[in-house]
Specification:
Length: 173
């Protein structure tokens, strides 16, 4: 059944908004993947705030034209293509690379991260990065360490002073 022009326009607008709202878009080939495995991937991606959509390649290329993205990204839209829309692309890419290791038929083609085209090797490098929360936690530990040492030194000085004063008081009794 053919899709009406109104419905096509609506789908185009919705998908265009997803492209614009996402910090990262990862393009995959899911050919040969079972429906159960694809649904499992969708659930895993939803846990990290990402969505997996199957969009026609022609529609995706139209969106790239609308966004004025003329690069080798269009060449990734061939064959059976699924797109991951995400705001925290590091977490989403980690989920995808783990899934790819477990499912040999699933392949990551590349992506569009922070308004830059990323090839497969760049996506793999991104998957090795720590997440934002992990980096913040490491920074807090690094910032807290000198302060904690300072507090320990100051408290040990006070304890020493109290000990000396107590021994002087004991001698006078």
């Amino acid at each position: 059944m053919a899709v009406s022009k109104k419905k096509k326009k609506l789908i185009l607008d919705e998908t265009l908004k997803k492209f614009q709202d996402s910090n990262g878009i990862v393009i995959t080939n899911y050919q040969g993947l079972t429906v159960a495995a694809l649904n499992k991937l969708r659930r895993e991606l939803e846990k990290v705030g990402a969505t997996y959509k199957v969009i026609k390649n022609t529609l995706s290329k139209k969106i790239l034209d609308e966004l004025k993205i003329n690069s080798n990204l269009k060449s990734m839209f061939s064959g059976v293509t699924g797109i991951v829309f995400c705001t925290d692309y590091i977490k989403a890419i980690k989920v995808l690379t783990d899934f790819e290791k477990k499912n040999k038929v699933f392949k990551i083609k590349g992506g569009f991260i922070e308004k830059k085209v990323c090839l497969l090797n760049e996506i793999i490098e991104i998957s090795k990065l720590s997440s934002k929360e992990e980096l913040i936690a490491k920074l807090v530990v690094l910032l807290n360490s000198p302060l904690q040492k300072f507090v320990n030194i100051m408290s040990s000085q006070q304890k020493g002073l109290v000990t000396v004063l107590k021994s002087i008081a004991d001698k006078k009794k």
